[in-house]
Structures are given as C-alpha cells and as structure tokens.
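Thread: Newbie trying to understand structure tokens

Hi all, I'm a second-year student working on a class project, and my supervisor (Dr. K.) asked me to get a predicted structure for one chain before our next meeting. I've only ever worked with sequences, so writing a 3D structure as a token string is new to me. If someone could post the tokens and maybe explain what I'm looking at, I'd be very grateful. Here's the chain:
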Amino acid sequence: MAHLRRLAVCCTSTILAVLQPRSIGPLHIGSRDPSQQATMDPRYLSHEADAQMFIEGVRMSRKLAQMPAFQPLVLRATRPGADAQGDAAILDYVQSSAQTAWHMCGTCKMGVDAEVVVEPRLTVRGIGGLRVVDSSIFPTIPSSNTNMPSIAVGEKGAELIRASR
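---
Reply by user tm_fold:
Sure, no problem. This is what the structure looks like when written as tokens:
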C-alpha cells in the first residue's frame, strides 16, 4: 500500500447517479427551420425522490470513505466539504455541481397509451411516413449505458423499414 498516495475524497455528481430519475422537463421546437436548436429544460432534481437519492448518495459516499480500509488513503473531504452536513447544504452542493451524462433519451416516448409520440412500429402517431429510430423513443431511461439499447432500436427500425417497402 506504500505505493498509493493519499487521496482527497470527492463526492461528485460524476460518481453519484440516479439511474431512473423521476424529474422531467419540456423539450420545445422553436422553429420550422431544422437547423435551429430546440430548447430543453431538464428540470434536474425537480422531483423530491431524485433530490433524496443524491443526498443519500453523498451520505453513503462519506460513510464509505470513513471505513477503516480507506483511512490510510483519505486525506480530507473536499466536495462537498465537511461543512455541508444538513440535507439543504448537501442539496445546494448537488444542485450547483450535478451534470448530465449526455445519454439523452426518452423525448418522444414509444408505447400504446394516450401520451405516446411513437407507436410500436416506430411510426410517429398522426404523421404518415415518419419514423423515429433512436433512443428518444425509450419510455424510461435504461439503467445501462444507452449504446446497446440504441443499437437494438436501430436494428429493429431497419427491419421494419425493409419490411414496409
């Protein structure tokens, strides 16, 4: 263990992640011009359950860092600092430092209920000749990396498009 340097414990949003967030926000098309960027407000941490998951994650990370096996490696807590003890202080830290993992999905839900945008054959409800074949159709966010589920959607989409010719 002599070859290991002492580390500062850093509980950051890149370590803690809510895999099935409940917070949702709007996505709006601002123009008919496809080169114009859509606007999105993800409303991170707007659902109480998401906020509580992060608070508990920081607390659990701190407990882990205090375990005897880690003591020779831990120099001090840096983010959030030791002064962030209460739920409000921890949540303030999380709100100021949380970020997305950039695996966006779920903006045009697929399914069969009244709220769906995309139907099971990957067609856009109410618009003939248009399909959506990407991770935006996921009705919920996968707990895994989105790469493989996105590939599966692409393969299924290709199959459906070939069959419709």
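A couple of things are worth pointing out once you decode it. The chain has two domains: 1-101, 103-165. Residues 103-165 form one domain. Feel free to ask follow-ups in this thread.
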